[in-house]
Write a structure and sequence with these properties.
Transmembrane segments: 48-66, 73-93, 128-147, 159-181, 187-210, 222-242, 248-269
Order of helices and strands: HHHHHHHHHHH
Number of helices: 11
Structural class: mainly alpha
Signal peptide: 1-19
Organism: Streptomyces kunmingensis
Number of domains: 1
Largest sheet: none
Strand content: under 5%
Number of strands: 0
Keywords: Membrane, Signal, Transmembrane, Transmembrane helix
Helix content: over 70%
Protein name: DMT family transporter
């Protein structure tokens, strides 16, 4: 099996694991929203740590795939997470996948597929220098801060921030993996340690941001995470790692058309049914307050 095919196989298994984790997070988000629990309170639940284990396993497979394939090839394959997660989430919720969800999923995948076609081969320089990694981390942190502010559509904005954080973490992971396996330098070089800490920070931030985003449902936030992730990684690959889009101007046009299709798919997925209330959720009701008699009517009765 060639290195590229092995990277694709690892990416497929990783996508399935990410899908299961996303569904678990969405169900947990629905329950905590029903109970009025805050984000930090869910850290003590078994469901949360189960989703963390699934995400960690998927991330390890993703890291292995990045060792054998270029960033612009491996990242778009994460779109298969959407293929598995939408029907899986609907089945667990006890409903059928709607026609709008199928169309939204298909358009998102078609758009990301167009980006995948233009993916490059191995990059001339597949690692970031320490100054480049720090610059990427600073710019990403500022962008995530802007997206996480209060305002309209918090679910989609948090999902975008989550996808960007995960995409940057993947790009930095490739640097750590290549640098750590390069026998020409020490294993615990400053570059490896600092970039590894940045990877951990962005991976954890992406996980918490996605948990917040899934409170509004699974389809649209997951589609936005799936779209923002490879876009962020591709920006780093194209601008700093020497990767390129195949096909020249035609390839660039195809990638642009794919981005438009994917955006349309995300819009359709925003019309997905809202997550149903958890069966175990407690609904608080206030007792009825008896109507107070009108003082004027009491005066009439007394007379």
């Amino acid at each position: 099996m060639s290195a590229t095919l092995f990277a694709v196989a690892l990416s497929l298994v990783s996508a399935v694991a990410y899908a299961a984790a996303a569904v678990a997070q969405e169900r947990l988000a629905a329950r905590t929203a029903d109970a009025g629990a805050g984000l930090w309170r869910l850290l003590g639940t078994g469901s949360w740590w189960w989703s963390v284990v699934l995400n960690a396993g998927a991330a390890l497979l993703h890291v292995a795939a990045l060792k054998y394939g270029p960033l612009t090839l491996v990242q778009p394959l994460g779109a298969l997470t959407l293929v598995a997660a939408v029907p899986l989430g609907a089945r667990i919720a006890g409903r059928h996948v709607t026609a709008v969800e199928w169309r939204g999923t298909a358009l998102t995948l078609a758009g990301l597929g167009a980006v995948l076609i233009t993916a490059s081969g191995p990059a001339p320089d597949d690692t970031l220098s320490l100054p480049e990694a720090l610059a990427v981390a600073g710019a990403t942190a500022a962008l995530i801060g802007a997206l996480s502010r209060r305002g309209a559509k918090p679910g989609l904005r948090h999902a975008t921030a989550s996808g960007i954080a995960s995409g940057v973490a993947s790009a930095l992971t490739q640097t750590v993996t290549v640098a750590a396996t390069d026998r020409s330098g020490p294993l615990l070089a400053p570059q490896v340690i600092v970039v590894a800490l940045l990877v951990a920070a962005f991976a954890a931030g992406g996980l918490l941001l996605s948990q917040t985003a899934y409170r509004g449902g699974l389809g649209a936030p997951l589609a936005m995470v799936t779209l923002a992730n490879p876009v962020a990684a591709a920006v780093i690959g194209l601008s700093l790692l020497g990767e390129r889009l195949q096909g020249g101007v035609a390839g660039l046009a195809l990638a642009g058309a794919g981005a438009v299709l994917a955006a349309r798919g995300v819009i359709l997925l925003t019309r997905s049914p809202a997550p149903a209330a958890s069966p175990g959720a407690t609904v608080m009701t206030l007792p009825a307050i008896p109507a107070q008699p009108d003082p004027e009517s009491l005066t009439l009765r007394a007379s």
